[in-house]
Design brief:
The chain is of the alpha/beta class and 237 residues long. It has one domain: Rossmann fold (3-Layer(aba) Sandwich). A six-stranded mixed sheet has the order 6-7-8-3-9-10, with helices on both faces. A hairpin with a 2-residue loop joins strand 9 and strand 10. Helix 6 packs parallel to helix 7. The structure holds adenosine-5'-triphosphate (ATP) and magnesium ion.
């Protein structure tokens, strides 16, 4: 089965426990949302999946039936998982074309750059610009394009809407919504922006102070304002 499976996973930073007993599955081609307040453990879960060496892990992570065991982060990437960090770490002194070139992978199809540019036309227009010349929304589009250069099976997106204007958020939602069909990729997306995720995801999980407290279809979450009030700070942003 082509799935990213996290089973009974716990993670800590030294003695500080970040989350315990978390299970979540993402199939290729589907989008799963992970909502939660500040400090809930969303970023840590994505870091755990890519085996960030800062973390001590217990539990299981497998990709397409291959257990990731104690693989270092770069090997997890080779197993088809790409991470888009929340701070959009592109090389600001380099052009967009150079940023994408650095992310090219030997295992990706030769025409991957063409596929990325065809499907994310905004990035094609920005190829000659330097990282520092981009707006926040443009940087986010480039960061996602860069992650797709390795032709991953799974994309981990960490709070992509953070700090973006509402109109840009709308465009980003449409662009992310098209990725599963364009690239046959499974997406795990963390957010505090609840409507952004419910508009995109096939399933949603809520994490609260390191515990998974709810999982279900987005429609059900939308119809239960009490759940949103209880678990997601100020409700819809
Ligand atoms: N490098 C670190 N060292 C120690 N503790 C950390 C570290 N990074 C995060 N934590 C702690 O782990 C917990 C989960 O943090 P995490 O960043 O995963 O939350 P989050 O849900 O992504 O929050 P946000 O919405 O603010 O991004 C918090 O208690 C946080 O203080
Ligand atoms: Mg975070």
């Amino acid at each position: 089965m082509n799935e990213l499976v996290v089973k009974s996973l716990s993670a800590s930073y030294g003695l500080a426990v970040a989350f315990t007993d978390v299970s979540i599955t993402v199939a290729k081609g589907e989008t799963v949302g992970l909502l939660g307040r500040n400090g809930a453990g969303k970023t840590t879960l994505l870091k755990a999946i890519i085996h960030d060496p800062e973390l001590t892990l217990r539990g299981e992570i497998s990709v397409n039936n291959v257990s990731l065991g104690k693989f270092p982060a770069y090997k997890v990437a080779r197993h088809g998982v790409a991470w888009v960090p929340d701070n959009r770490r592109i090389f600001t002194a380099l052009s967009v074309a150079e940023n994408l070139d650095l992310a090219r992978s030997k295992t990706a199809p030769k025409d991957q750059l063409d596929r990325v540019l065809t499907n994310i036309p905004l990035v094609e227009k920005l190829m000659k610009r330097r990282g520092y010349e981009l707006s926040g929304g443009e940087q986010q589009a480039v960061t996602i394009a860069r992650a797709l250069m390795s032709a991953p099976d799974y994309l981990l997106l960490d709070e992509p809407t953070e700090g973006l204007a509402p109109l840009i958020v709308e465009q980003l939602q449409a662009a992310i919504g098209a990725l599963p069909a364009q690239f046959d990729v499974g997406i795990l997306i963390t957010e505090q922006n609840f409507s952004f995720v419910t508009g995109l995801a096939d399933r949603v999980h809520i994490l609260e102070t390191g515990q998974m407290v709810w999982a279900g279809p987005p429609d059900e979450l939308v119809s239960k304002p009490q759940l949103i009030d209880r678990h997601l700070s100020v409700g819809e942003k």
